[in-house]
Amino acid sequence: MKRIDAIIPEKKLNAVNTALHEINVTGLTVFDTKGRGKDTPKPDQLGHWLYYPEFGENITLMVLSSDADVEKVVGAIQSNAGLGKIFVTNVEELIDIQKNTKGNEAL
Description:
Order of helices and strands: EHEEEEHEEE
CATH topology: Alpha-Beta Plaits
Mean pLDDT: 92
Number of domains: 1
Structural class: alpha+beta
Radius of gyration: 17 Å
Shape: elongated
Oligomer: single chain
C-alpha cells in the first residue's frame, strides 16, 4: 500500500479531483499548503504596491492507494495538475477505526 502526496496549485484541485473520481479513488484529503521552491514567486499587488511573497500558496492532496493502482493515481494527478511535486511512500499499516478492517480492506 502507498501514500501519495501531491503539492499542486489550488486552481488545479477541481480538475485533479474529477480525474481521481474517474479512476474510482474514493478517499482524498486536502491541506492548505505554503512553501517555496526553485521558481521565483509571482508578485502580488496590495493597493498600489507590488510585493513578492516569501511563500507560494498551494494545496497538498493525500491519497492512499493499493500498490496495483499507484501508477494510475499518479498519472491522473500528473496529467491534470500541470506542475507541482508528487511523493510516493510506503504505508506499513492502515486501520479503519469504524469498520475495524486493516490493509487494503480499509481503503
